[in-house]
Amino acid sequence: MSAAGTQRYYHQPVLVRQALEALVVRPGGWYIDATLGEGGHASLILDASVPEGRLLGIDADPEALETAGRRLEAMRPGAALLVHGNLSHIGAIARDHGFAPVDGVLMDLGLSSLQLEGEERGFSFQRDQPLDMRFDDTSGATAAELVNTLAEEDLANLIYRYGEERRSRAIARAIVGRRPLRTTGDLNQAIWEAVGHARGRIHPSTRTYQALRIAVNQELDNLQQGLEGALEVLKPGGRLVVISYHSLEDRLVKECLRQESFGEPPRLRLVQKRVIRPTRDEVERNRRSRSARLRVVERL
Ligand SMILES: C[S@@+](CC[C@H](N)C(=O)[O-])C[C@H]1O[C@@H](n2cnc3c(N)ncnc32)[C@H](O)[C@@H]1O
After folding, report:
1. For the segment 144-156, what is each residue's pLDDT rounded down to a tens digit?
2. Is the CB of 249 under 6 A from ligand 1?
């Protein structure tokens, strides 16, 4: 599967069978993919909802929308409506476009391969690129602005809180000592100066990159608002499926969904009490799936 006119491969969607089963996609159903990415899950939802099914796709990244748009339009012309926006505004976006109430909402959080491998995005510590890290490169502060302007203590707290990085203070000190940082290469140098090259199972830059990406994109606040908004737009019996990739995200999702299912009156039913993980086979085929966790609830 290469993108139209290029040799580039699409992002490989994770937990596909599990996500479609959890959403209970049916012919004629209306769905929202609030993190459209390259449209991998969305194309399967459209496929499973023929002939009348409709999909609203939302993404903060204009480039992702363009790629997914070409793909979905070629597949089922007119069946998908794509909107540039943040999932935190899912309620307003859905209502403005006549997509409320719906049968299901999918959120497949985090990054797509398009972003990780993009030339100018700065998401990967394995490439030397400008320190950007915004999903939406049309607005907001970049990672470079954060690392070059935050006070050392605030930077350390950010790296600790969002990266769960024990060496956050040493890393923040090294970053401040190397200012101004412009590229991922500059950031890697600072991290390595603080913690060394090889350290345990994960790459020494992993946690700091995660922390900066979460902060730049205000991921946790947006997710909290997005979950609340999704519950507003689901029909009774409609399903919300969330795939997360790190423990901070998953904890937030679990907590929010539990509260709503044990509230007075409860607004949700937990369809699966336990989180759904990829099979060993999927992890072997697609390493990116190894940290994926899927949770599913039904609107009462
Ligand atoms: C893992 S990818 C989705 C991949 C997609 N399921 C597929 O199969 O191609 C996550 C996407 O969510 C988008 N995203 C992340 N946080 C977002 C937010 N708060 N609002 C809107 N889009 C967001 C990213 O820009 C990225 O394109």
Report:
1. 999 999 999 999 9
2. no
pTM reported for the whole predicted model = 0.95
Report which protein residue has its CA nearest ligand 1's atom 5: 37
Residue in 12, 46, 59 to alter for ligand 1 test, most ligand atoms within 8 A of Cβ: 59
Report the distance separating Cα 109 and Cα 246, nearest Å. 10
If asked whether residues 194 and 152 sit together in one domain, one would say: yes
Q: Which domain holds residue 269?
A: 16-114+219-299
Q: Which atom of ligand 1 is nearest to the CA of 12?
A: 8
| Mean pLDDT of the chain, nearest integer | 94
Same domain, 209 and 225: no
Work out which ligand 1 atom sits closest to the CA atom of 106: 6
Are 249 and 220 in contact, with CB atoms under 8 Å apart? yes
CA distance 177 to 76: 54
Do the domain assignments include residue 1?
no
Atom of ligand 1 nearest to the CA of 135: 25
Q: Is 87 in the pocket of ligand 1 (CB under 6 A)?
A: yes
Structure tokens at 47: 């496929």
